Structures are given as C-alpha cells and as structure tokens.
Amino acid sequence: MTVPSTSHSAKPPSRPSLVPKKAEKPQLPSVPLHLVDKRDNDIQYIRGPLLGEGGFARCYYVTCCTSQKAFAAKAVPKIGLRSKKAKDKLLSEIKLHRELIHENIVKFIRAFEDDNFVYIILELCENKTCVELLKEKKRLSEPEAKMFFPQILGALQCMHDARIIHRDLKLGNLFIAKDGEIKIGDFGLATKVNDKGERKKTICGTPNYIAPEILFNNDVGHSYEVDIWSLGVILYTMLIGKPPFQTKHIKEIYEKIKNTDYTFPDDCPISAEAKDLIEKLLSQNPKDRPTIMQILEHPFMRMRERIAALTDITNTTKCKENIHKEFQKLNIKDQKGPLKDNDNYRAKAKPQIQQIPLNLQNAKNDINYNLLAQQDTPKKVTSPKRTTSLVDSVHKCIKVVLRGNCEYLPSFKELKLPDAFITKWIDYTMKYGFVYSLSNGIEGMLFNDHTTLLLHSPTNRMHYFDLDNYKRCSFDASTKNEERDLEKKKGVLLAMKGYMSNNLNHAANITINCAEKFPSIYLTKYMKADGATLFRLSNRSIQVNFQDHTKLVFSNEGLIVTFIDSQRNLSVLNIKDIVLNNHIQIIEKLERVLKIFDDLQSK
Question: May I have one GO cellular component term (predicted)?
C-alpha cells in the first residue's frame, strides 16, 4: 500500500466504522478493448489482460496495432481526477517520467486521453516486480543482489542528475524485464528539486520504506537522501526476505523507523560487508548516508562474484504462455492492422458518467506531447537516437578528466583487472556473426540473428541465449543437438575457435583462467568507428581496440580504465589518475574515444 501524497501522519487516519469501504469509491467505468490516440493519426492499442492495479489506476497488457509490439498501459479514470490537486499530481508524474531516459528506468512511450480515461503507455516488463521474485525465492543471495543493485544505482543516479527524487523506491516499483534487468517505475510520488538546497515537506511514501526525516522532521524537510534510505530497506529485504522495520501495525513501524530499530536475524546469515553497507544506508542522519558513488565504491559492491543469468527468476517463457492464455479467455486474435467497426470484440456502449475534461495539452505544466518520440511506430521517429546510459556514463567520465575536473571523481584504492575482456576476435558478420575469446577463457559468438552461443572448454559445455524468443539452454558440445539451427551454430563456433587458437595471439600477457562454470559475461554489442572497434560486454564494460594494437577497457561505469599497450602489457588505473599523472599515450586514446562518443551523440 502506498501512503497518499496529500497528507499522512505517524498515526494512520481512522475511518468511520458505519460507512462501508466500498461506498467510498465511485463506480469506475470499464476500460475499452481498444485505446486510441486521436492526436497522433489514431494510433491504436489492443487491450489485453490486467497486469495490476493500485488506487484508481489499472495497468493492462496492450499491443500496438501498427507495430505489433507489446506495452503496458496505465489507465487512470477521470472520475478520480475531479480536484485540481489530483490533476496536477498526474501531470507531474507524466512530465517527470517523460524526462528520464535510462536503460534501468521503465521507458515512457506516450500519454493520451479519451472521454473517460488518461492512458500512459509504458515499456512492458514481462516478469512483474521484485515482490513476486522474493515470494518465489524467499530471499536473494548476495551475488544476486549485487547483480541488481548497480542497475538500481545507475537509474537513481539518472534521476538525481535530473534533480528528481523518486520518494517511493520499494520492491513493488522494481520491475523485471524479460532479460532479467531491473527497471524502476511508478513516479506518482516523485518530485523535482527546483532550487539548490530546496527541501520538500510533503509526507508521502510506503510505510516500510519511508525515511525518518519525512515522518519526524517535517519542519526541516527532505531531499535526495530519502532515496538512499529506501535503498537500505531494499537491500535488507532482498538479503533477509522481509523489510527491517516490518510489524503488523503502521504506528509500530514508524516507531521502529524513528529509533532505527532493526536486527540481522541469526537464521539469515549475511556478510559483514553487506551489514556495513545496510547500516550506512539506514543512517538516521541524512548527512551520514553515502552518496551513490560511495555506494559503488563500498567493499560489498566491489566483491565482484558473477552469477549466471537468473533463468529461475525471469522464467519468461512461462510468463508469455500465461499472457497468451489470458488473451484466449478474452477471445482476442492477433491484429495485423487498426481495428474496424465490425470487429467482434469491439467495446460495448460506454457507461454514462459525468464527463470531466482534463485538457492535457493546455495544462499549466505545459506538457507538449509533440515532443514524444513515437517509439512504437519506427517510421515516425523524429527524435535523435540516444546512446545507452553506460556509454553516457563513460562519455561523461572522459569529458570530466580531459577538462581538468578530476577532483570531482572518486578513486578506487584497490584496482583489479576487469572480470573479462576480449582477447581475440574475428568479424565474420558477412556470413554468420562475430566470434571472440574472453580473458576468462570463454569462447563465444554473437550471431547475425542476435543469438549468442558460449563455450566453456574445461567442461565442454555450451550455453545458448536467444533472448528475443525467451530461450536459454545449455548442452554438452560433444553430443548432437536435435535442433538443426543450433547444431549448425555449434559447428560454426567450434570451427572458428580452432582457427583463432591456431592463428591469433592473445591481446594481453595474462594467464587464462576458465573458472566460470556457467558463463555470465558475453558480447552484447559492437561497432567500428574512426579506426577503432568498440565492444560492449554484459558485465557493463566497454572495450575499445585501436589499429595500433593498443586497447582501453572501461569498467565501473568508466571510473576505472585498463590500458593494454602494443606489447600486450596491462595497466589498471583510476581514470582521474591518467590526467593527474600525465599518461600522455593514454590521454591521446581518451581524446579519440571522446571524439567517437561525441559523434555518436550527434547522430
């Protein structure tokens, strides 16, 4: 349950017992089976099954008739928007969410309205939220939490850079996409800091996650630190299986928050590093809580165990089948174009209720919907392409150091080699795809159909990823695969592996240690630009290979750089130290990478 943003005190308001709860809610209209954005060439969406609901709003699975892509549609009935405060709150949610573009934030697609509803079209996260994940797994292991937490931190950094405080970070607002990545959503309680030093004074949030300064220090107000507190509750809940202050009564929860009254149960042992980070995040004084950069530098986050993709968590095939079953119940067929008047599942007559015009286009918040890229209809995209947030992060770090503002960047005392980087590669995309060897001993191939096949040589096991079609599997490389396409891909990878072993040298003077039994690092993207080849790996690192056989590997969001010279010798440095210690050769390489990234952003 989310506490209303209007007002809330430590003691929950009482409700007259003589008034039935149902009588308090007005009758809500039915959401039609087709949603039409009349301001954009009548773009239509087919409504599917209900995904969830909260308050007045309901969220549905929808399919765009033009692109056949699936999305989530949040339908807000206008009957619940009678007051100016309710309208302004919704408009603020739309405006703030639209500003945020990050791979770990649920993507905002568009917003439009009809007579009865305001619709917000969002990226679909097929695997629901971390609430369902925790119900299934009871608690997460520390490596699993470490896989999710940097994603949450990256999204939160994006929000805070845009001067936005989320104020409702919780497991229920951490959505899981089909590839297992975390996406933060629901900006209904978010607010923007307009002036430096401004403190917000609205009492809002979800009881188990509310920071103490929201509840008990309203005179002073609150700021970005409330999101850091919520991170502490999230991490504790992930590792222990329940929130740290949870009791049956809200008043008792608030009292425990006030006194920072929580313990680490003996039957759920966690590491000393995890406890230390949680204790810092849950500091009673907001000034004592770590910054996002300090969290990333904490020993808990730097213990870089890697785990396999969480197939038991994502379970996307099962999710897809469940949605298909729900569609069958609704008797909705696949659509190849816009709805027609004679469709047998067309919505029935609309209920007669009082019409409440919202007038989104002329609202005082000045939301100009013409600025929204039509991301579900590719032919009409007019906004410039945007690089991924990881590229943005590395780009920003390089800019900062080359401009001489190194003091603003953190430095790491313990510098380690990246978990993996590419040591050999062959571009065979003219026929099959891109084959490579990693420094951890894994051989892999990114095929032209966007699938990936990895080989773990010590066990002779192969691991196949087809995320577009919800497929992951592993098998013995020595046995024949029943699927002809997969058997062919296996043969290509083995042949190319043999060629690389016999003809190519490793990119660096290192000892290959193939310790990972289930590979979790692989190539996700690559490109060639300005005499260099760029690689992005699934461990959130970017590698740049230059024609003179030197290489740069950016890890920790660009804060750590591994330089491999033409003699294959390695150096690991904080990016700020490259300029401070005047490493001329590496500075020249950084200037080239900066130019490449500048060119990417201008396209």
Answer: nucleolar peripheral inclusion body
Bridge pairing between strands 57-64 and 34-37: unpaired
How far is 281 from 338, CA to CA, in rounded Å?
Answer: 50
CATH superfamily name and code, 130-312: Transferase(Phosphotransferase) domain 1 (1.10.510.10)
Q: For Cα atoms 448, 500, 417, give the angle at the middle one, nearest 5 degrees.
A: 90
> Annotated binding residue at 137?
no
Determine the topology of domain 390-602 in CATH.
Arylsulfatase, C-terminal domain (3.30.1120)
Architecture of domain 25-126+317-337: 2-Layer Sandwich (3.30)
Q: Is 93 within 8 Å of 188 (Cβ atoms)?
A: yes
- Per residue in 135-149, pLDDT (tens digit) is 988 999 988 898 889
Count the Cβ atoms, other than its own, within 10 Å of residue 130: 24
Give Cα 70 to chain centroid, integer Å. Answer: 18
Nearest to 15 by CA among 29, 25, 2: 25
140 touches 146 (CB < 8 A): no
Choose the catalytic residue: 37, 168, 186, 577: 168
Residue 564: count of CB within 10 angstroms of its CB: 23
Tokens 């297992």: give the residue: 180
Q: Is 168 a catalytic residue?
A: yes
How far is residue 90's CA from residue 186's CA, in Å, rounded to a whole number?
A: 11
Q: Which residues pair with 456 in a beta bridge?
A: 461
Positions of CATH 3.30.1120.30 in the chain:
390-602
**In contact, 461 and 474? CB cutoff 8 Å:** yes
Residue 564 CB contacts under 8 Å (≥ 6 apart), including other chains:
507, 508, 550, 551, 552, 553, 570
Q: Is 564 helix (H, G, I), strand (E, B) or coil?
A: strand
Contact 379, 72 (CB under 8 A): no
Identify whether the C-beta of residue 424 lies closer than 8 Å to the C-beta of residue 504: yes
Give, as one character, the DSSP assignment of residue 80: G
CA angle centred on 165, ends 159 and 168, rounded to 5°: 110
What backbone phi and psi angles, to 5 degrees, belong to 593? -65, -40
Tell me where in the chain the CATH 3.30.200.20 domain(s) lie: 25-126+317-337
Query: How confident is residue 562, by pLDDT bands cut at 50, 70 and 90?
Result: very high
Name the token pair of 486.
Answer: 């997969």
Tell me, what's the pLDDT at 507?
Answer: 62
The pLDDT of residue 480 is above 50: yes
Retrieve residue 158's tokens. Answer: 């994006």
Give the C-alpha separation, 44 to 46, whole Å: 7
> Partners of 62 in the beta sheet?
47, 71
Tell me the per-residue pLDDT of 32-89, one tens digit each, with 9 for 90 and over: 989 998 887 778 999 999 988 877 789 999 999 888 899 999 999 998 888 888 899 9
Where in the chain are all domains bearing CATH 1.10.510.10?
Answer: 130-312
Q: CA 550: distance to chain centroid?
A: 32
